[in-house]
Every structure is written in C-alpha cells, then in structure tokens.
UniProtKB/TrEMBL annotation:
This is NADH:flavin oxidoreductase/NADH oxidase family protein. It comes from the Bacteria. The keyword Zinc-finger does not apply. Keywords: Flavoprotein, Oxidoreductase. Residues 9-341 form the NADH:flavin oxidoreductase/NADH oxidase N-terminal domain. It holds the Pfam family Oxidored_FMN. CDD domains: OYE_like_2_FMN. It comes from Aquibacillus rhizosphaerae. The lineage of its organism: Bacteria, Bacillati, Bacillota, Bacilli, Bacillales.
C-alpha cells in the first residue's frame, strides 16, 4: 500500500480552515427532529459519535429553510433563533475531536411526497414521470416574489447556522430538490430571468450564494452539493454541471461535492452503474476526472467509496480532494478511524434488497434501512449490519403504514 493520502490535512484557499484529513461524512437526512422540527438529544448523540469517528468534515442531513416546505415529518428546520440553544448543542457535539461540522440547507420544491406539505412549489408546474405521479402532490410554479423570499430564507438559515456554531454550510443543489429543479431544463421551463439558458437556470443558485455570502462574511466556508448529471432525458447534463461549477468557482465557492441522480433516477446509490464503475467503486469518478482537467475547485466526490485502496487512488490521480462517505457511516460511525488505520476488512455494506422488485428498484430500502441504523446510534445502541431488509420493511410498514414510502427522501 502506498502512502495514505486520506490522512493528509487540507487547507481551504483564502480561509483559515484546515481539515485534519480528507474524509467527509456526507449528508444523511436523519428524520430525528422533535415534533417542532428541532434538534433532539438523540440527534446530538448521533453527531457526537460521528465527530469521534474521525472524519475531517461532517455534513448534517438536510435542514429545511422553511417549516412550510418540509421534505419529511421529522426534518430539522432552522428559520429563526427561538431555540438557538438546541442548535448550539448540536453544533458543539459535531465539532468535537477537531472536526468541522457544516449544516446542509435545503428546500424540497416539488420533490416532497403526498401528505407531508399542503402544497408543493416548483420553478414550473411540471409533474413527475407518470409512474411517480401518484406519490407526489400536484405542484404550482413559484411567483418571482416567492423566489426572492426563498433566496433570503437560505441566507437567513445559513446566518443562524453560523451563530449556532456550525463551521460552514452546504447548499443542497443536487438530487432533484428545488435548486436542482431550477437548474434542470426539464423541470424549469420558465420564460422569465429564472429560466431558459443555463445562465438563467443557474441564477437561483448564484443569488442564493451571494445572499448567503452577504450574511455570513468572507471567512465562513460555503459549499454546494451538485449533480454531475440528473441522468434524465432533456435534464441537467454534464455540460450544464461543468458550467455551474466553473461559475461557482469564479464566485469563490469553497467546496463542491459531486453526486448525481434524483428520485426519478437513483444514480446516487449506484443504481444501474456500469461494471467498470463498480470496479473503481466511486460512481461519478469519470465525471470528476474530466472536471478536474478544467477547474481547480476543491472537490468532494461522493457515492460508492468503500476501501482505502480506491480512496487513495482517487486522491492520487487528483480526481478529487476529499472522499465523501454516507452509508458506511450509518453502520460504522468510526469508519474514518478504521480507514485511517486501514483496518476495514470486514465491512459489510451491500445493496439493501427485500426481494420485492418494485421496492428494491427504487432504492427506497437504502433510505429506510439506513435511517433505522441512524436511529439506533442516536439511542446509544450499536448498529445491526445483519438486520434483515425484509424485516426492516415489515417493521416500517407496521409502525407507519404504507405512507412511509411517501415520506422518505434523500
Ligand atoms: C438514509 C440516507 C439519507 C440521505 N440524506 C441525504 C441528504 O439529506 N442530503 C444529501 O445531499 N444526500 C443524502 N443522502 C445521499 C448521501 O449523501 C450520498 O450521496 C449517497 O448515499 C451515496 O454515498 P454512499 O455510497 O457513500 O452512501 C442520503 C443517503 C441515505 C442513505
């Protein structure tokens, strides 16, 4: 084994921010907030476990910018400072052990399942693919005034995150949520300044970036999670993605995280990945390699990484600067410590399959099964890698009824 590059520190350009290593715990929506959408003791315990687990940076599950725009019933929402102390406790747990802890901030737009919100909004009133329409409420197009209000909400939440002690924020512009809908020509068919060519479709994200920067100052890191592509016909393409990332670099973005896919195409979980991709582990490595030829922006590549060999190789070739990891961290909160010691032989992270194809094909069990593991860590219990997916499904259905699959999101 060559020198371990994952253990090398990294300093952000023009910031006094140094990450102790190259491992990033990627966002996983926890569904563990209180009934008032606030951080709970279990959430604090979960993040303390991750902070102790050794990653250089941990990113929270998506925190919503508006109580009226939830993605799932137990999302955390941060829209005012009424309970800022609870957010301070959460931040304090996540920055232990010299760890950076960033809050991911999000608005679901129309990608919210029936029963969770009264009304879904989107850049344009375009429904999902026919096979998904029964899960989602009808959506309506946002007015220009509403767009401006949402931009300010992102900025407000970011400022509150900074006040609470988070060491950065990540804007969720991937996976088919509102920002990703604005970026996509398939979902954004507006004829005003927010739609049309990619320069216009990017405007919503760039305005959010500027509004946040104005509120948090130049020294506070801002990241963006973005798709390499939506993998949809007439959707957000690799060329669009290159354009957006180059522009964000020009604006001074501190960190870009690469993922891919949406509810409609679950590429983020490696669904339909080519055998050559599976061999190199990371689902979006080819894309990252091409991107790095054109930009110098600091990158986190997320999706599929499992072994120190593949991680070190991706760092060595310069395809990425950081390794993003999600599902293994739900099973092994100290996975980064194991990676740094190169002792991960018995890692059992495999596709979660119930044997029921209509469920397995959508990648729904990846969310449900791993969320149950997060809950266990939050309750102070050990995780259960051998937990049967079918049993997980039965328990979920028994507890929540069939609507549960209409309420989980990524
Ligand atoms: C339970 C669960 C919840 C997730 N929630 C989010 C989220 O809130 N925001 C986000 O950007 N990605 C979310 N993801 C996607 C992960 O961040 C990551 O992109 C994906 O799991 C692929 O990485 P992995 O192969 O290391 O798991 C979630 C994934 C899982 C399993």
């Amino acid at each position: 084994m060559n020198k371990s590059l994952i253990s090398e520190p990294y300093s952000l350009k023009n910031k006094s921010v140094t990450f102790k290593n190259r491992i990033v715990k990627s966002a996983m929506s926890e569904g563990m907030a209180s009934e008032k959408y606030l951080p709970t003791n279990n959430l604090v315990r979960l993040y303390q476990a991750w902070a102790e687990g050794g990653a250089g940076l941990i990113i929270s599950g998506n925190v919503m910018v508006d109580t009226k725009a939830l993605g799932e019933p137990r999302n955390v929402v941060l829209e005012n400072d009424d309970h800022i102390d609870l957010f301070k406790q959460w931040a304090e747990a996540g920055i232990k052990n010299n760890t950076h802890f960033w809050m991911q901030i999000n608005h679901p737009g129309k990608q919210v399942l029936k029963g969770v919100v009264d009304e879904a909004v989107a850049p344009s009133a375009i429904p999902f693919e026919p096979d998904l329409q029964r899960f989602f409420p009808k959506c309506r197009a946002l007015s220009p005034e509403e767009i401006e209000e949402i931009i300010q909400r992102f900025a407000n939440t970011a400022k509150l995150a900074k006040t609470a002690g988070f060491t950065g924020v990540q804007i969720h512009a991937a996976h088919g949520y509102l920002i990703s809908q604005f970026l996509s020509p398939r979902h954004n068919q507006r004829e005003d300044k927010w739609g049309g060519p990619i320069e216009n479709r990017f405007r919503f994200l760039s305005e959010i970036y500027h509004a946040i920067r104005a509120r948090v100052g130049d020294d506070f890191p801002i990241g963006v999670k973005i798709n390499s592509s939506d993998f949809m016909k007439a959707g957000f393409s690799e060329d669009d993605s290159h354009f957006v990332i180059s522009e964000l670099e020009r604006l001074g973005i501190d960190l870009i995280e690469i993922s891919g896919g949406t509810y409609e195409k679950a590429a983020l979980f490696g669904k339909n990945a080519k055998p050559s991709t599976v061999k190199r582990e990371a689902y979006f490595l080819d894309y990252a390699e091409k991107l790095k030829e054109k930009t110098g922006v600091p990158l986190v590549l997320t999706g599929g990484f499992r072994t120190p060999t593949a991680m070190n190789e991706a760092l060595k070739t310069g395809a990425t600067d950081f390794i993003g990891i999600a599902r293994p961290m739900a099973l092994y909160p100290d996975y980064p410590n194991q990676l740094l010691k190169e002792k991960v032989d018995d890692l059992s992270v495999k596709p979660i399959k119930t044997g029921l194809s209509f469920i397995d094909n959508k990648g729904l069990m990846e969310i449900t099964w791993y969320s149950q593991q997060l809950e266990r860590i939050g309750r102070g219990k050990s995780t259960k890698p051998s937990f049967s997916p079918l049993l997980s499904l039965i328990i979920t259905l028994f507890k929540n009824g069939k609507e549960v699959f209409q309420k989980r999101r990524v």
